[in-house]
Every structure is written in C-alpha cells, then in structure tokens.
Amino acid sequence: EPAPEPAPEPEVAPAPEPEVAPAPEPAKTSQASTHSELGAKVSEAMMSIMDGMGSITDVKSAEAFVKTMEGASTTLKEVLAAAEALDPPTDEEKEAMKAIKEGFEGKGQAIGQKMFQMMAENPDAEAIGAVLMESLNNPQMKEMSDKLDAIYGLEDEAEELEIGE
Asked: What's the CA gap between 50 and 160, in Å, rounded?
C-alpha cells in the first residue's frame, strides 16, 4: 500500500515582512462587532470612569476626569449604535453584560465612598463639586446607559422605577 505522497514544500525563502502601516481603526458603524466585544468596550469605558473618579483629589484632577467622562461618553455612543445594529443579544450575551455591569457597579460604590470621604475632608470640595456636577449629571450619558440597559435586559435591575413620566 503506497503511503500518500507528502505535498511538495515550496522552495521560497520567507520574504522579510514589509513595513505595513497599522490597520486603520474599524469604521465606527462596523458590523463586525459582537455583543461580547461591545461588552468589553463598555467595561473599559466604565473602568476608565471609575479610575478617573477614584483619582480626583483637586480641581485639576476633577477637570481631567471630565475629559475622561467625555471620552467614555463617545465610546458608549459608538457601542450603543453598534448594539442597535446587531441582532438582539442571546441570553448568554445578556448574562455576560449583566456580569460586567455588576462588576463596575460594585467598584463604583467603593469609589463613591472614597470620593465622599475625600470631599468631606477637602477644602476645595465646593470647587471640585462644581467641576464634576455637569459631567456626572449628563442626561445624554443616562439616556445611552438606559438604552443599553434596555437592549441587554438590564433595566429591570434599576432600583428607581419612574412610572408614568
């Protein structure tokens, strides 16, 4: 019984890799995104918010945090557009997003307590608060968050249910 012939090896020395410009960022409305990729982006955006919030000690760091919030807001806007363009998430994808949300909510509570403590002891608390208020009470951010919650079936976890608005 003849053994199958091995495929002939091409006798080409591997050419050195040409210098290639980095691949362009995928288009904002890229359909290639999956719900799990979007979950990773949400997690990254929220963690940057948490880290930024946790690093506030004065007006300057509060102003830096506002820029972090703006970046996170842009990311969430992109995620929302991509999530709306995808097929509805499966139950597994919803569970994964729920786990992500619970993770950053726990971290957020701890950071909120740390911030409360810092503000209680900081002579610049009023100025810091003034810088943060607009950023933290951003209605667009809340609206995007609410829409993402709706897509991933997370809205029923909200403690405050406004009925008949």
From this structure: 22
User: What pLDDT, in 10s, does the model give residues 16-51?
Assistant: 554 545 444 444 444 458 999 999 999 999 889 999
Answer whether 111's CB lies under 8 Å from 132's CB. Answer: no
Q: How far is CA 138 from the centre of its chain?
A: 16
Q: What are phi and psi of 132, to 5 degrees?
A: -80, -30
User: In this structure, are residues 82 and 154 in contact, taking their beta carbons and an 8 Å threshold?
Assistant: no
Q: Report the distance separating Cα 38 and Cα 71, nearest Å.
A: 16
| Residue 153 CA to its chain's centroid (Å) | 17
pTM over 0.85: no
Q: Both tokens of residue 29?
A: 């409305």
Kindly report the backbone phi and psi dihedral angles of residue 90, in degrees, each rounded to the nearest multiple of 5, phi listed first.
-75, 170
